[in-house]
Amino acid sequence: MSTLLEKHIVELLEERNEKAISLLYEHYGDTLYGVAHKVLRDEELAQDVLQESFVKIWKKSDSYDSTKAKLFTWLFRITRNTAIDKLRSTNTKTDREIQMDVSDVYNLGVDSIRPEFMDVRENLDKIESKYQIVLEALFFQGMTQQEASEELDIPLGTIKSRLKIGLRELRKIYGTSMLLMLLIPLLS
Predict the structure, then answer these.
(1) What is the pTM of this model?
(2) Gyration radius of the chain's alpha carbons
(3) In this predicted model, what pLDDT tens digit does every residue of 96-131 receive, in sequence order?
């Protein structure tokens, strides 16, 4: 793309002129769709992401700074991040779907409850302290992930990662079904 055309598009964005979006779509649409499709590997989701990206580009047009990045780089980042967010969202929704006929949560009998597994806090000491702190805040102090992030002065993304890893470590100790059984009352 020529530098003059890029400057013209940037000027139109700064003026909040809707023609900027049509020019962006005309000159970058196929490439940005390719970026989204590469991340998602799904045509429909990639089309959704492309549309969401153009909405974000329009809303954030005043944040574009040509001294920090070329226009394409800025567009690429917005589209790629939107695609990654969509992928995570889709994966999370899929992970949350419970298949009752496959689940063994309701098949636990009294025989499957082992007394040595009843004290979560005691076994919490068996995992690294950085994971203990997050699990303690979320499950025993009743904080949300955002509250834990603010209280512990740890970025929200790090809280989420440590929660995931901490639960994985506890799963090694308890097993999946027992861990669910122990944590559900704490979440109620």
Answers:
(1) 0.50
(2) 23
(3) 555 544 544 444 444 444 444 456 667 777 888 898
Asked if pLDDT for residue 57 goes beyond 70, the answer is yes
Q: What are phi and psi of 102, to 5 degrees?
A: -100, -25
3-state DSSP call for residue 145? helix
Coil/strand/helix, residue 172: helix
- Both 46 and 113 in one domain: the answer is no
pLDDT > 90: percent of the chain: 39
Amino acid at 113: I
CB 58 within 8 A of CB 23: no
Into how many domains does the chain fold? 2
In this structure, the answer to whether residues 65 and 9 fall within a common structural domain is: yes
Dihedral sign computed on CA atoms, order 146, 147, 150, 153? negative
134 and 74 in a common domain: no
